[in-house]
Every structure is written in C-alpha cells, then in structure tokens.
Amino acid sequence: MIFNRQRHIILSFFLSLGLLLASAGCQFRGPTTTTIAQPKPLSSSCRVILLPFLNDSDDENMGLIAEKICESELINREAKVINEADVRLFLQKKRLFLSQWLTSADKTFYQDMARDLKVEKIVSGKVFSVGLETVQGASLPTASLQLELRDADTGHLLASSFLTRSGDDYRLMMHFGVVRTQSELVQMMIGEIFDDWIDKGVVNCKKAS
Fold this sequence. Notes:
Oligomer: single chain
Strand content: 15-25%
Helix content: 40-55%
Low-confidence stretches: 1-28
Structural class: alpha/beta
Radius of gyration: 21 Å
Largest sheet: 7 strands, mixed
Distance between the termini: 57 Å
Number of strands: 7
Order of helices and strands: HEEEHEHHHEEEHH
Number of helices: 7
C-alpha cells in the first residue's frame, strides 16, 4: 500500500515536470526565420516600401487587414513607410504593374527605385490561413503567415519568416492574456517577426516599447 502510494507520487512528479518542460518549450518557440547575408551595412534610417499582402485564407479581407496591421507595426517601430501613391507613380513611369514587381523587375529598376524614393527595404507578406480552435471550452483564433524582407537597392531577399500561432500562445509565452480576435492575433504575430528581424540585425528599426 505504501509502495503504491510512493509510486503514484513519483509518477505524478514526473508528469508535472514533463508538462512544465513542455510549457517552457512553448514559451521560447519563435518564428521560423531564414536570413541571408546582407549586401551592405545598415544605415541609420529605416525607410521601407510595404507591398500588398497575398491572401490564401478563407477570409477574403484578411490580406488587406494584415497589410494595414503591418504598416501600423512598422510605424510603431519608427520606420518610414513610403506613401503608396508615390510607389504607384514610380511604377507608372517604369510601365510596370504592382503585381509584376517581384517577378519582372531588373537590377536597374531597383537601383532607380532606391534612389528616387530614398528607400532601403521592401516588406511583403502572405496570409496562409486563419481559423478557430477550441481551448478549454473557448473559441480562439489561429493564423499562419509569412513575411519577407528585401534589399531595395538590389531586390535580393534578406530574410523570410514563417509563423503559426493560436490565441492561447501569447498567454503561455508572455503572460499577455488570451488573444481572442483574429486581427489582434495577426498584430502580435507580425510584431513578433519584426522584433526577431531586429534581434538578428537584418533591419535597423527600433523595438516597439
């Protein structure tokens, strides 16, 4: 009887330890980021062009929502986001559609754009999916998205980050509280990726306070 009780206590201890370690693992699970060697040193400013987000999710508005959130998060990190009208005017002069940019632009295009618009980086994004999951009886949002960072002077890819999160993840990681809306979750995810880029030294913006 005593032996069974001791065995039960030991098993309970190791089960609790396992759950604690699993929780700690979740706390430090960051975005999957691939960084490429930078072609030149970072300057003191942070001027970027933000391209329209692609959207593969079932929510037809999520691409535009994510794009606006991304712009807000960039500004929150003291980035200067080039006015979309200025970008479209430059494209018109080059006789290039926005949808053709990343596939058809050549080296001269990027050099001219970086000089004329005084821009250093290009940010683009894609929403793969959004949805809902049930956690402890509550319906919480989920999302998967990708952000890419390119050198405006060459068009070369500098960093590509993929991230999947649920509304419960930020409670586990940051004691932030459960995230209950899709837009709030996307905001947290984009901010997390930007801060990861800053930590890795691929952008020179400042972390959000």
